[in-house]
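Hello,

Following up on my earlier ticket. Below are the two sequence lines again, exactly as submitted.
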Amino acid sequence: MILEALEREGVEIIFGYPGGANLPIYQRLPAHPALKHVLVRHEQGAAHMADGYARATGRAGVCMATSGPGALNLVTGLATAFMDSVPLIAITGQVASRTVGSDAFQESDIIGCTQSVTKHNYLVTHADDIPRIMAEAFHIATTGRPGPVLIDVCKDAQQAEGNWEYEACSALPGYRPAYEPDPAMAKRAMELLAQAKRPVILAGHGVILSHAEQELLDVAERSGTPVGTTLLGVGAFPTRHPLALHMTGFMGTGWNIRAVQNADVLLMVGMRVDDRVTAKLSEWAPRAEHFIHVDIDASEMGKNVRPHLEVVGDAKRSLTLMLPHVQPPPSDRGEWLTQIDAWREEHPLKYAQSNGHLQPQDVLLDMYRRCKDEAIVVADVGQNQIWAALWWNYSKPGLFINSGGAGTMGFALPAAIGAKFGRPDKDVWCVAGEGGFVMTAQELSVAVEHQLDVKIVLLNNFSLGMVRQFQDDFYGGVRSQVDLTQMPDFVKLADAYGLPARRVHKLEEIGPAFDEAQSTKGPFLIDFRIDPEANVYPIVPLGKGLNDFWELPNGA
Amino acid sequence: MVHDRLRLLAVTVENHPGVMSRVSGMIRRRGFNIQTITVGPSTVEGRSRMTLTVDAGYAEVDQVAKQLDRLVEVIAVEDITEAPTYSRELLIARLDRVPPTVEQYGARRVGNNLVELTAETDTIEDFIEFLKPFGIQELARTGPVAMRRTAQQ
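Thanks for your patience. The regenerated structure is below:
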């Protein structure tokens, strides 16, 4: 019945791992050939693959695991999806309902364990409940602010024949997503924006999730308002647009930071205004007279920053309601935009070119020249993530996937595999550091087994680069437990897994390596030996305000 | 009367197994703290009514109700901290000896050395102070149940 429900919900692929407590589901799987099953090599990989699939397609990703350790291995992946509002359905096997609570073999309280990292979860003890719960789970996961939902199904409920009446769920008494904003608030938002001298729009993941990029562009262009994005909002606004401020926050661009810190009206759309956006909260946007916050989740209003105007609703609906009230920019808007241009000139993105080492930016810029605005880039966590966010000029949403909220190392490879399964028409690139890569490297087997065209760009600096940079810059230069010189030979490792690979030391080797990767069918790994001292700039020292951002040191 | 970080909430929940754990778990992980919690069935089958007193901790006080409302099994949350409310708590105490004057507090003697009092929390606190010289062996309190004095428009 679980598999039938998945078919009814239009699921085409499951990322999973069988075990004792979900054997009845796997017994029936061959009878459902429409459901493709991908056997992962570790359950965390299943959760991240489902996550990457969901982010790349906009549909719910589905992962399965058995009870106990199998279910527990999903937890990091669920937390990753929860923090980034990704629709996921996790189906776990549970011991038989009569033995729940008896510390049975491979029993774990996965409902208790995942309460704080799921949007909702269910324990199923009776087969009769399966259709209703499956329908509710899909409804909850995919509507409103999306998120993961876990369904823990006791083994006896998997085996029993229950009443099968499947009706898609459209409403629940305690769950009412606030799609439709108050039109008066939307109108008022545009009045405040029209009165602004130095307005800034910040766009987050919510813009991408609700496909509101066109409405955002319209509001920005018609009102002459510059737009920055959060890390998860990268791609919500074309990076090379004249009004683009690129990424905001404590590793955002200098001109974005200057604009935010000087703005008098900030319109924040589909974002949480978290600590990575604000840095030291009391020093954030000190000149702002009006914060306007648009979000589908009412609890985001005032959670971190108290808005003067709350627009609780879907980003696309909210911006659509705002459009008729947009005022053309006032005659003095040019001054603000000229000022921003000056900041852009004053604080360009820079990197340590020609210091003899291979720079990660050289690698990424070459990639971008090849892929333009078509390929999907899935980044891991750390320096590689910020470089990939800043040095590609994403012009469309959904092309940059990363674990922004949870910051889960090991995310990139399985998420890239999931993204490729979801979007076989797209080139998919996995950008990772060697530290995160080895956390889930076992999923290379999946890429090889399915001959997936996932190209792995390893930015190998022989250390936990972001931690090393923090230690160097903010913790007195004490390098502690960040050395990763003892790592496998990644070319040999790739060979052992059965995929081709190259190692690149020099600038002039980048092009040929990418040529080879692109002309090779199936997965390909390039081990880029980058500058071990390469750092992320700009960066705001931990605990400081945005104004204190550091740039690439002179002479670096 | 109420500390300004404390919120008094009337919450309607689905009467499912584990709903208490969801509510209390959410309050803990958001850095809030439960002062009192009472729960009982409502007039609607499958629904329970809770009265919660929650310390918002470092968070903005409106976060308590908003975060509770995100739970799927929470049907409705009403923050009645600022509203005129009728609030009562029940106390039962076992004493070495029952003073003859308990009726002055509106309390009742029940059995040989038990007393009960239904009153506002402040009065309950005063009553406990009054009882101390008479030897409190055992004491049980429900925490307050509360509702608005007039229905919300």
